[in-house]
Amino acid sequence: FPLCAGGIFLAPRIITSIYGAEYLPSALIFAIVLLAGTVGSVSTASSSFLYSVERQKVILRFYILAVLLKLTLNLFLTRKYQAIGAVWVNFSAQVFFGVGVIVYVYAFFLKRKFPLIPALKIGLTSFIMGFVVYLLSSFLPGVFGLIVCILLGVILYPIILAFTRALEKLDFDLTSRYIQKLPFGLDRLFSGFLGVLRRISLGEETR
Q1: With bands split at pLDDT 50, 70 and 90, how would you rate the model's confidence at 185?
Q2: Contact 190, 182 (CB under 8 A)
Q3: Which secondary-structure segment (H or E) carries 29?
Q4: 28, 32, 62, 178: which sits with the fewest CB atoms below 10 Å from its CB?
C-alpha cells in the first residue's frame, strides 16, 4: 500500500526525473500499474495460503478466468485506446484475480469476514502519506528532491499509522524482534523510534 501510494502521487516526478519531461504522458500508465499493485499486495497472502494447503488448482482457475477477461477487454479497449486501454485491461485482470482469490480464501477456508476496517486504515494512511509527500515535492525540485521526498515518506508512514491506530500490539512485538537484530547500534536508534510510535498508538512503551 504505502509503496504504491507514494509511487502514484510521485509518478510524474519519478518519470520526468528518470526519463525526462518528454516521457511525462507515461506517468498515468505508471500510476495505474501501481494502483493494480495495491490489490496484488493484499492478495499475495491469500495466494500463498492456497499454495500452502495444496489448492494450486484454485489459483489456476482464477488465472484462466483473468486471462479470458483480459482477452475480452483487449478487443474493446486496447484497439481503441492503445497504451491507456492496455494498462486498464491489465488492471482489470489483476483486480479480478486478486479480489477473487481473497474472497475465496475468506469464504471457503477461513470462514470469516475480510478485515476491511484495518485494510481501510492502512489505505487511508498510505493516501495521507502520499498526499503529504506530493505537496512537499513541489518545494523540493530535481532528483535530489525526489530522493528526499521518498525518504520523508518512509518516515511519515509509520508515524501516521501510529496516529490512526492502525497498528496492534502484535505488530510492535514482531517489529521489535527484527529491530533487535540490526547491527552498528541501529537497534537502539530504531527501538527508540518504535517506542515513541508505541506510546502514540497503544499508550505503552516498548519493553
Answers
A1: confident
A2: yes
A3: helix 27-52
A4: 178
